[in-house]
Amino acid sequence: AVFGDVSMKTLSDLRKQARQLENELDLKLVSFSKLCTSYSSSRDGRRGDSSSDTTPLLSNSTQDRMFETMSVEIEQLLAKLTGVNDKMAEYTSTPGVTSLNAALMHTLQRHRDILQDYTHEFHKTKSNFMAIREREDLLGSVRKDIETYKSGSGVNNRRTELFLKEHEHLRNSDRLIDDTISIAMATKENMTSQRGLLKSIQSRVNTLANRFPAINNLIQRINLRKRRDSLILGGVIGICTILLLLYAFH
After folding, report:
1. pTM (2 decimals)?
2. pLDDT tens digits, one per residue of 29-53
3. Which of 60-64, 181-185, 191-195 has the lowest mean pLDDT?
């Protein structure tokens, strides 16, 4: 009888420990499930508007650390509850409690079912969390690659735009130089033509000047003025040509 009382007391203590561990596990699993749900919401909030009121206060790195800590704590509680259930199973096979085996086996089976449910819930929640984290890490990597590509494309586009502008500027400069050369050639041909005409007139005037001395003096003054005008005209044309070239290569 004394052995039976000791066994019953031991079983009562083990059942008390089992219920205490089950209550702790229940609270831990509820918090664990909320953590996983908030982790998923935080990822969705970061993909959306960062100013949204639904954005959680905890960062994902903090949630990752909390996940690891809570996982270890829950695994330790499950291991302790498994040990308590094993000890209760040993006492149900004790010869001194044979008459109580049916009731004890029912109680032990209930505790085993609770342990199995908690273990299944823990592994399911943990697997969902790991799947969400892996998926979001993959999406984050893809988004990072896209942003890197966009930023690189933006730089390339700006460089291409600058090259096109520089190319267009060079084309305009070439066109302006060609126009300037065409004007200079036309001016040269015109001056050559005018020089030939002036030489013809000068030869005729010289012929008249040899015949009339008074006209000779007038012709000399005209020749001096003509040389002066030629120098002025040549200087103006040279300055204009230099200014056009400076503008073209500016």
Report:
1. 0.49
2. 999 888 888 775 555 545 544 444 4
3. 60-64
Residue labelled with tokens 């059942």: 15
Looking up tokens 């000779």, which residue turns up?
216
- Are 21 and 77 within 8 A, CB to CB? yes
pLDDT at 203: 78
The closest of 32, 54, 59 to 129, measured between CA atoms, is: 32
> 10 Å Cβ neighbour count for 213?
8
Q: Tell me the Ramachandran region of residue 94: left when phi exceeds 0, alpha when psi lies from -120 to 50, beta otherwise.
A: beta
Q: Which of 33, 69, 63 is nearest to 46 (CA)?
A: 63
Overall average pLDDT of the 44-68 stretch:
59
pLDDT digits (tens, 9 = 90+) for 114-149: 999 999 999 998 888 888 888 877 877 777 777 776
